[in-house]
Amino acid sequence: MKEMLGKPFPEITDLTRPFWKGAAQGRLMMQRCEACGTVNFHPKPWCVECGSRKLSWQQVKNQGTVYSYTVSHSVAMNLPGWELPVILALVDVDDAARMYAQVVGVGEDGIRVGMRVEAVFEPIGDGAGIPKFRPLSAD
Amino acid sequence: MRSAVAIVGYGRTPYSRLREGEPVLTVDEYLAWAADLALQKAGMTKADFDGQGLGVAHAEAAHTVNWSAAVAENLGISPSALIRGDQGGASAAAMLIRAAALIAAGVIDRALILGADTPLSIPSAAPGLPLSPERTRGVYWDFQGPFGVMGATAQFALVLRRYMHEYQVTPAQLGKIAVTNRFHASLHPGAIYRKPYSLEDYLASRILSDPIRLFDCVPIVNGGLAYIVTSARDARALTDKPVYVRGLGEANNFYRGSRTHPDITCTGFAKAAPVAMRMAGIAHRDIDFFQPYDDYPFISMMTLEDWGFCKKGEGGRFIDGHDFRFDGDFPMSTDGGQLSGGQPGGAIGGFMPLIEGVTQLRGEAGARQVRDAAIGGVCGFGGIPYGRPGRSCVSVILGTEA
User: Which of A114, B102, B198, B281 has the highest local Cβ count within 10 Å?
Assistant: First the structure.
């Protein structure tokens, strides 16, 4: 694991590159199963629903709904260097899968389960980006 | 397999928070220490396990070679069957299932099962953070760390927040579990935090990852634990206090709902517990005490629900309605839990519910002894899958009668 700006940097592999590259270009990419249509995330070696290895990377919608969230005031598993608190959510991306992501542009008193959010993308270097989400109404 | 095997010995080393002046022991030293305690308790020697079973739980201190065969070499034991626990906090209970099956099948007659870890002395990816390299590399990590996942507390906070969205549980209800755990720790000489605190103290503890607060979080320690399991017939010859393994159930990678959008408020105990209770031939009312995997109070509460002591969503009310003290109507986490007892690494804490269950059923729990304890429910709970609470759930029913 490399460290960038005090934050953890992913190891980018052939399996995961489409996600990171897509995010650098403002697109949220996930693997869709060609056999059953299930969207798999995080990247998987085969479809976790049907077992087909025919997974193809596709752009998914950049909107979703907050399934759950937490406001983290301390760092346990992560590297120092984060601006705390971090609002971490599980986001159900529309017509896709559930993912961990930070929610930005909202205070810790404003975040809610069920909140509609949209992806925003931040470059993290090496041609990679990372999606975060912000409230859909804010712009 | 009901009561085909019994536990005849156990050991739990003193734990260390690596305070100044404390010796820094290796994983192998803790394994040997825990094994020594268990062998003494059973009146056996390491030679009794040549040609028999040896089980070793995976340690996260990845700078040590912790393969089961390497442990056999270091301990000078020549087993005919090696059992590997790699299910995190479910490893201890899962290895009991493997050992019971091997014994019931006649492959071996007995097994020595070990676990130790030194999470406070792992060379970490980040100075001061007790993280093994295995937690900080690979696809699983790459899609968490950079996304702001701050550790188990944050991961579990997401589960609790969702639970609180769908159902009701108050901080005071969760605090009751934490306060009772600490009370039990005050009665357990081996617990790491023993000074009792009040519900007010709990509620005043700072929020780490909303809605989880400091006193909800398990403290990690260095330490080791062990147990010895034999055929029921051998157990009766070895001890007048065999603890029979009456029921076993296991669920791995449990989902409720679809794999892309699961209901994360339910754990695999919903599947594992009924299997164990059916094998044991018992009902909920027969259980004299309960040892959940008690690293966070709300995990204990969800475990109560998924075992079926109450319905999903009624955990908070169940907490209000019961006294969890060792002398109450529903004794729970009588060793102080991992919450106040300490967790020797995410993979080894799972020995604690099992060993406390055996301790209680042998009548060796001292000041925290549950009176007339005959049947106990015990849990293993291990691993945190992506966006969900527990990879492996193991339910065990122990009893003084076969």
Answer: B102
